[in-house]
Amino acid sequence: MRPIQMVDTKNQYLKIKNEIDTAIEQVISSAAYIGGKAVQDFTTALNTYNGSKHTITCANGTDALQIAMMALNLQPGDEVITPSFTYIATTEVVALLKLKPVFVEVDAKTFCIDANAIRKAITPKTKAIVPVHLYGQAAPMEAIMQIAEEYNLFVIEDNAQAIGCTYTYSNGTKKKTGSIGHIGCTSFYPSKNLGAFGDGGAIFTDDDALAEKIKMIANHGQSKRYYHDVVGCNSRLDGIQAAILNEKLKHLDAYNAARQTAAAFYNKAFANHSKITTPFVAHYSTHVYHQYTLQLQNVNRDGLNAYLAEKKIPSMIYYPVPGHKQKMFENFGLNNYNLETTDWLTERVISLPIHTELDTEQLTYITTEILNYINNI
Length: 377
What we know:
Blueprint lengths: L8 H7 L1 H14 L6 H14 L3 E5 L2 H11 L7 E5 L5 H8 L3 E5 L10 H7 L4 E4 L11 H11 L2 E5 L7 E3 L5 E3 L6 E5 L13 E5 L2 H11 L3 E3 L2 E2 L10 H11 L2 H19 L5 E2 L14 E5 L4 H10 L29 H7 L2 E4 L7 H16 L2
Parallel strand pairs: 2-3, 2-4, 4-5, 5-8
Antiparallel strand pairs: 1-9, 6-7, 8-9, 10-11, 12-13, 13-14
């Protein structure tokens, strides 16, 4: 049996090595390391794939979120509603821009932000909502957009974990996550479903004026060289990463399908086990399984984690400390939060290997060892 990886980017690369190597060589030959044809081609292809009117690439997913908030003219003290149960980058940029993060609950089944909790958290200072499509499926975007329209709020989708996921509206209309809110943001960190060989990110919007402002902010605030209209930053996707991503984008649907196949194997192996809850998929969303995350009942999670490590099976806990309990937010007066569902999940979730290269032998070994541990404690 091949060694089991949490994410196997090497073997994924080997399957399209010729295409990737050729794409990289073309960039090197052209010397278009910043901007150039590779970035233009990838931007166009990604824009078509995601169904947005505008796509602006940038250096990473965190930059994408920061630039989005800068483009919306949010001011210090403005409140931004977001889940506490997510990676820190989502709310780190809120604090960086001197905005106030307002953490709300997630749905215990989907792990995504609870629309009812959003409504309860709105105040006169609320200016934006940042739903996170956590682990690979969509937040309840139709309800979120209705709330945003009612209260005149901006919606910035954090789509770093769900590129390729499809959301279905109540009328049957379908859209890709990242193309629903006023702005969508994603990451191309190597372990993502569409991963670069380094860092990268992108921003999506259907708003022409917002798109122009986002482009300016990502490029030192300039629309014309040496003429800086707004305060910006330096955030660019380089040509080599764009060339790699453009090749991998052609395989993204197949990559997501492979993840779904692995998830189906896990689901079947753990079906109806009293101590294991497998991922729930909402009726309005597909699931692209950036992570495959179990909820454990009456199981020593740390013990299981250690046991799997002994068996050379990687596992991860996403996330052990929620945002409202992070030290970095102490100055924001977050001590009064009571997020029972979030706290409950942080003590019970564990994520298993999930990627495009898992085979039946590996999946059988993983599930057998997990069941051996749980059934014998």
